[in-house]
Amino acid sequence: MWIQRQFENILRRSAESRPVVVLTGPRQTGKTSLVRRLFPDHAYVSLDLPSEAAQAEGDPVAFMQRHGSVLIVDEVQYAPGLFRHLKRAVDENRDQMGRFILTGSQPFQLMQGVSESLAGRADILHLDGLSYREIQSDVQSRSLSVEAFVFRGGFPELHERPDLDAPDFFRSYVATYLERDLRMQLQVGNLRDFERFLRACALRTSQLLNRAELARDVGISPTTAGQWLSTLEQSGIITLLEPWFSNATKPLVKTPKLHFNDSGLCAFLMGMHNLDDLFSSPLAGALWETCVFTEFRKALAASPRWQLAFWRDRTKEADFLFHRAGRFKLADAKWSENPSSGDRLALVRREIEGNAPAAVISRVANAFPLKDGTEALPLLHVSEFLGG
């Protein structure tokens, strides 16, 4: 089963305009499947295989002669020595676009190699998991409720195999992620501390980030907490959403909000094991806000017209603020099947732009107007909301 990705057109356009395309993103978000489907005429090699990585690093000339000049290289960060030879191959024929498609789930080594050797030659893209719109566009997946999507998240395997138990998938994912990626990058001495840190971050999703409190609760130093947060953000597991302010003297919050980039992973780390846990949890509202955030993030990746932030001062708040060339849009997330008003957004609208479009994203079946000049929208409509 293949679920059409909104990201496909962006990836194709990138390959038409750059000789090298670098696709990053967390493990299991579908990078390999996507590039192999879109570029079937490219040869394919994965450096997850130690023998291939060893040759790519130790004898890149022989490696490239063996695999050809039009190539997909998966997990390319395992052979940093290959980047210089890719640069040479590109410079010999700068007119051939889309020649090398590189993927990687460890952005640290990957970005270093790209910046040192492929600057000006490569386009860098980031792929998250499936959006709810993508899943609903597939006939076999259309019956998935929005609550089930919040609980399962957007990792493609969980939707290709509906019988797969989500907690089992995430338990394996966390263990693999710790062992294969972060332990190597961060030299984590105590994996139990790091897993506790992940769970503490999940319990704070959709909240203003307090690094000192987070470090204290886990029992690590603030410096270590900062390093681990930075690593989680760079590897696509979390996002630190910045507040919007145009006047540095105004008393607005200037602390970022922490969001996970997949609601299913966040739900697992919160300790939710089934939908009953979600419905009975006091954390459902925070998890819903993070889910709405991930949908906006995916919509903006496919059509990056707006910049995303949030608004908060001493009396007013909007979960999401979109801005572009002096224009604004506002949105709130409410874990409700029948929101009655968008009064919070109305207060912020008066502060920034009286006629800014505003919406409350909730578990409604269809869009309908609310008082205060806002409207209630289902999760499926986030792309349309950003369309103007």
What does this structure look like?
The chain has 388 residues and is α/β, with parallel strands linked by helices. It folds into two domains: 8-126, P-loop containing nucleotide triphosphate hydrolases (Rossmann fold), CATH 3.40.50; 132-385, no CATH class. It is 45% helix and 16% strand. The strands form three sheets. It has a six-stranded mixed sheet, sandwiched between helices. A five-stranded parallel sheet has the order 2-3-4-1-5, with helices on both faces. Strands 6-8-7 form a three-stranded antiparallel sheet. The radius of gyration is 22 Å and the shape is globular. The mean pLDDT is 89.
The oligomeric state is: single chain
Number of domains: 2
Shape descriptor reads globular
Strand content bin: 15-25%
Structural class: alpha/beta
Distance between the termini: 33 Å
Record field, number of beta strands? 14
Report the biggest beta sheet as strand number plus sense, adding barrel if it closes: 6 strands, mixed
Helix content: 40-55%
The count of helical stretches stands at 18
Which strands sit side by side, in order, in the main sheet?
Answer: 9-10-11-12-14-13
As a whole number of angstroms, the C-alpha radius of gyration is: 22 Å
Tell me, rounded to a whole number, the average pLDDT: 89
Low-confidence regions: none
